[in-house]
Amino acid sequence: MLLALAGLILAGLPAVPASAASTLSPVPGTSYQANGRVRTVVTIGSTVYLGGNFTSLRPAGAPAGTGEVARSRLAAVNRDTGALLPWNPGADRDVYVLAVSPDARTVYVGGYFTRVGGAARKRLAAVDAATGAVTSWAPTANGKVLALTALGARVYLGGTFSTVNGQPRTRLAAVSTAGVLDAGWKPAADDTVRALASTPEGSAVLAGGDFFVVDGTSRSRHLVKLDPATGAQQTWNWMPGYGVWEIVVTGSRVYLAGDGAGGHLAAHSLPNGGRLWQVQTDGGIQSAAVIGDTLYGGGHFDNVCAGNTTAGNGTGDGFDCQQNLAVRRKLVALDVDTGALDPWNPGANSNLGVFALEASGGRLFAGGDFSKIGGVTQRSFAVFG
Asked: What's the burial of 20, exposed, middle or buried (CB within 10 Å: 0-12/13-18/19+)?
């Protein structure tokens, strides 16, 4: 497949129509870098929080082993300067997801760890956003927690688990901000849940992943819209033809990033999920973020196929990937309204590429497995502004 794509590119096929919405430089700014994968990034004000499987951070430009500062799978840097901050709770095993509480005082942590900040915490923890102190919030899960979103007095979680707080919960659950399992919210997914997001007015929770069936309903393939109070399914008219890794909600739009036969970025309308456009890549898209009129995607792709960005009425991909190919290595920018390819093209290396994107203050924060990005030697974390 990749050889065929490369051949078509070399054959001189027309470039994908481009818009010029992105204002970001393709060269990253100065920031600390990590010595291992950064899987998740969130922001509160001028603080950027990182989670992953790294064990130290070092200054920009410093080679491995030079200027390393211990940070066990959790760290924070200044949004505007890239400087490492004292925030340092530490986890004993991988962190997969971070989420911010509605009052922006707490960072919720999900993963496969058993201790955070020296305290016993089985797959779930909450950390003070200012001090890094571990709070008393201590629900437990028996498998990986890959997705979190906080809404009102509940924290919703998704992953691979089958119990939460010792009670049966099949890959989806909700707990209170006091750590109490919600007895009534218990939709069950038949495979991994990788992404969660709430709608702007808080009337629904969107869950995405590898699943085909939720609560016995096949009309929930890879994405389901759930009532935040009861867990009952709400109307969603489009089933993605690919596993969903990221859900970004802005205003009346939902943007999906996913895997499947290559990778996908798609725009859907709220409230019912009508598809507006879709773009395919030759490798999975694991992360997405929006700045202004531009949607950014990160993953392990090398080429973008945007020959068909129109909406459709079926469940398949609806693409002709034999035309309109453009090289975009691990990072891509698209027009939010049309899916048209943007000229922004920094590129990143490594087979697995970019796992996390987050936007704040007009900057884009990228985390992943790369060692070079935007032409700069910078490992696992970079800032574009």
From this structure: exposed
